């Protein structure tokens, strides 16, 4: 229904991933999707500064649970959400207690160290390697873009594999600190080697500000990109949600192409912030875009 409504308004850029699993026919809609994939490949090649914004949709395809989907962590466990809202205040009140509790309880997301990137992550890394993508700004904390080989990644909500100093913002690889040992030896919280400040997870908690270096760099990227590929996110959570809207405003003066790859139409589609939506899984569509790029530049 949503799609029909949009088409009635003259919105031309929606297509679904073809269902090739059964006996489905090659429909007009499937052809349109192929056209949009080709168009994206061509626009990427022509772009001077393309960036991508990613969200939960690309991670769930690696088997990571989201927070607010039908099977989401908060949806199924409102108590955990209530607790998460208090995390930042609790950390500030007593970092030692907070660390003890964190280390002695299981992570809500499971063991993210064991999760592998999927073909969507790999395709984005490939586009960067070919010089067609300058930056990934992600809301995901799982480090999967880096695992897939992406070099310039701005972890908007932090990165689970890092620790960040509460005083001076220096980041450390989590593996540099033997947290279990510090726990056993009663030496928590971990301390910054530069300033002796308390370290917290790099992950941004509710009520916590986005680290200023990441917030600023992301704004700069959104302000200067001429193509923005939005993958697996409706960009509904602020301040991240400003980024596509900033890029949209910029285009009043200069051309910025905004392309969505999402499972369903989003407010970005409906508000006309994106030029078009390729509807389906990022793990299927992004590799197809890479294939089209390869056909055009070897
Ligand atoms: Zn420090």
Number of helices: 13
Q: State the CATH topology of the largest domain.
A: Rossmann fold
| Class computed from helices, strands and strand pairing | alpha/beta
Strand content: 5-15%
CATH H-tier superfamily of the largest domain: TPP-binding domain
The best one-word shape is elongated
Integer-rounded radius of gyration: 21 Å
Name the hetero compounds present.
zinc ion
What share of the residues lie within helices?
A: 40-55%
End-to-end distance, in Å? 41 Å
Residue ranges: pLDDT <50 for 5 or more in a row? 1-12
Average pLDDT metric: 88
- CATH architecture assignment name of the largest domain: 3-Layer(aba) Sandwich
Q: Count the strands?
A: 10
């Amino acid at each position: 229904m949503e799609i029909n409504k949009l088409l009635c308004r003259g919105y031309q850029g929606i297509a679904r991933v073809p269902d090739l699993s059964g006996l489905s026919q090659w429909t007009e809609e499937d052809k349109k999707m192929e056209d949009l994939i080709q168009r994206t490949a061509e626009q990427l090649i022509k772009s001077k500064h393309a960036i991508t914004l990613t969200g939960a949709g690309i991670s769930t395809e690696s088997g990571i649970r989201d927070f607010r989907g039908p099977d989401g962590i908060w949806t199924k466990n409102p108590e955990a959400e209530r607790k998460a809202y208090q995390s930042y205040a609790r950390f500030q009140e007593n970092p030692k207690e907070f660390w003890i509790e964190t280390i002695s309880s299981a992570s809500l997301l499971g063991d993210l160290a064991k999760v592998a990137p999927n073909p969507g992550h790999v395709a984005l890394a490939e586009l960067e390697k070919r010089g067609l993508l300058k930056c990934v700004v992600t809301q995901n904390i799982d480090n999967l873009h880096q695992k897939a080989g992406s070099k310039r990644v701005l972890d908007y909500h932090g990165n689970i594999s890092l620790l960040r100093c509460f005083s001076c913002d220096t980041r450390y690889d989590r593996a540099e600190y033997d947290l279990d040992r510090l726990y056993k030896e009663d030496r928590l919280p971990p301390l910054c080697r530069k300033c002796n400040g308390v370290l917290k997870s790099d992950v941004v908690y509710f009520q916590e500000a986005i680290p200023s270096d990441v917030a600023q760099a992301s704004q700069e990227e959104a302000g200067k990109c001429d193509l923005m590929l939005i993958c697996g996110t409706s960009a509904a959570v602020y301040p991240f949600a400003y980024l596509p809207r900033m890029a949209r405003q910029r285009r009043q003066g200069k051309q910025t192409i905004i392309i969505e790859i999402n499972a369903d139409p989003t407010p970005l589609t409906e508000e006309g912030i994106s030029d078009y939506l390729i509807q389906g899984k990022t793990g299927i569509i992004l590799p197809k875009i890479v294939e089209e790029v390869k056909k055009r530049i070897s």
